[in-house]
Amino acid sequence: MCENMDILSQNNDTRDEVIFQDDALGSFGQMGEDFDDINSFMDLSRKPSRIQDCNKIMSEPSERLVQGAQMAQAVLGAKLLSAIQEQARDDLPSKVSAEYIAEVCFSSYARPGLEFKESSLVNIGMMIALNRTPELRIHIAAALNLGISEEKIVETCRHAMIYCGVPAGREALAVASDIFAKVRGTTKEERAKMS
Fold first, then answer.
1. Which residues contact 149 (CB under 8 A, 6 or more apart)?
2. Which distant-in-sequence residues (6+ apart) come within 8 Å of 17 by Cβ?
3. Is residue 11 part of a domain?
4. What CATH number does residue 153 fall under?
5. Which residue positions does the secretion signal occupy (predicted)?
6. pLDDT at 57
7. d(Cα 4, Cα 25) in Å, to the nearest integer?
8. Is residue 6 part of a domain?
């Protein structure tokens, strides 16, 4: 586990929390069980890391899996990935899901057309629209890792409010506020004293 961690999630079900920390941003928390499926997708050296499908075993990671792992490291940062790997489940459903996420989702970051920062802001908007708060926390933290300003993240949340509704936008802004404060190292009590 990483040192100096804090909880991001408001999720009360902490059965399988994922704890992570990023190089540039300091500690920024734990995720709920919604992230069980991404827990092992970057650890290509983990044994056994092959998917078994009707007696067929993949002997080597695909080129897209390797590319996706590289893109994930660039987007999320090394310490976040390391912490996710430490919390990884070692079962077939988790591996299938994790490999899919790397091969399809993260390898898409290598496509031309959108910069990492642009993709990150799109992801934030989509997580708001889909009401996927645990994933939103990851994507806001990743956006900060990529150097996206707090102001741009807040404006993205505000803009999503137009199409997703005020409750979704307010929740996203509250999530962003919590993550920003944790990155700065302030607690809820300290923030309450400031207001």
1. none
2. 7, 9, 30, 31, 32, 33, 87
3. no
4. 1.20.1290.10
5. none
6. 45
7. 12
8. no
Q: How far apart are CA 71 and CA 142, in angstroms?
A: 12
Which two structure tokens, joined as six digits, stand for 142?
């990743």
The reply to whether the predicted model has a pTM over 0.85 is: no
Q: How much of the chain is helix, strand and coil, in % rounded to 5?
A: 60, 10, 35
Residue with tokens 């899919």: 100
Tokens of 188: 């809820």
In a domain, 194, yes or no: no
Strand partners, 52: 57
| Residue in the structure block whose two tokens are 């092992």 | 40
- Give the number of other Cβ atoms within 10 Å of residue 177's Cβ: 14
Number of domains in the chain: 1
Residue 173: domain span? 18-189
Token pair recorded at residue 34: 């919604």
Give the pLDDT band (50/70/90) at residue 190.
low
Question: Is the residue at 10 inside a domain?
Answer: no
